[in-house]
Amino acid sequence: MEKNKRVCHITSMDNWRDARIFERACLGLARNGFEVSFIVTTPDENVVESDYPVSFLWLKKRDGIRRRIFSSIEAIEKAISIDADIYHFHDPEILFFVNKLRKRKPKAKIIFDIHENYRGRFEMWKKTRLFSPILKKLYSWAETYMMHKINGYVVVSDSMKLIYKDVKVPGTVVRNTIYFPNYSDFIINEDKDETLKRIITSGSHSYQRHVVQTVAAIKYINTKEKIVFNFVGKYKLNAEEQIQKQIEKDNIQDYVTLDGMLTRQKNIERISESFCGCVFYEDNPNNRVGIPNRIFEYMFAGIPIVVSDFPELRKIITEADCGVVVDSSNPHSIAEGIQFLLDHPDKAKMMGENGRKALETTMNYQVDLETLINFYADV
User: Fold this and answer.
1) Which CATH class is domain 6-179+364-378?
2) pTM for the full model?
3) Which strands, in side-by-side order, build the sheet including 305-308?
């Protein structure tokens, strides 16, 4: 595809520094010779626009239903105000306002980037559980109908693409991998303290990410070595309180540490000092098809991974041979997975090395960006 093509990415839902949209797609396309515009909600902080090879068009800051409706309308108006060859939007709400853009820019190509299983969300809404099947069916029909008015769509995994088998326009998979050069200067601690086995869980923590089950697994692990479960990041919906209650219940104060947010570099350093990393989620329609970023950060740091048994996570673990799969709703299963790695240190070390090699070769955003560029050419 000609590298001087003009691409416009659009979102009112995500932060301007969103890793998938801005740091990887927008900056990656700009590095590859594309002229990139970015329509996004005005941030709270000052942005030095000249620092980036991207043209920003800022949307008024709104929340809730006002953002879904009025920001979508404003985003379409701003999109019409510029000339792009490709309009690539990331909010499901914009799909239902896209006709105006289609009419005003008939030669342009329009792409819908589907980050999550929006159809499956209705199954997760407890307040509307009685009507969930009807709501899901209505949304699925409307989404499919509107997608046939655009030129293509992007999803994050093969499992998610299966959800859209009823859509007849072209689609492709652009995974939530990391852009390797962004991490090239980060320090990897090769000299670990072998007397302490740190099991790390980084990112956002909540009951839905099985933090209680993770802590409850500790009492089932047998080892002569000192172990510590380290939570690093944000704590949502009383997660910290729930963790502390489980710690007190099992009397394992010496085996758990809770830290707050770290910079990306400090987080990678902490991960690299760890023995293994955990990626746990509850079983729901979105988690079954998603790929969280932190699995790739663990692979970058060269440590083995313990993950929930979902198709996309299992696929990564199997293809790269970089960890073990467990039922993360069951503390016994979590303990068994970690125990296997502790009992087989050479195998665990090899798994960590395998993960790093896979990230360097096939599971990185350089590969996925090429997929995106080729998809633009196809449509």
Assistant:
1) alpha beta
2) 0.90
3) 256-259, 226-235, 196-205, 276-279, 305-308, 323-326
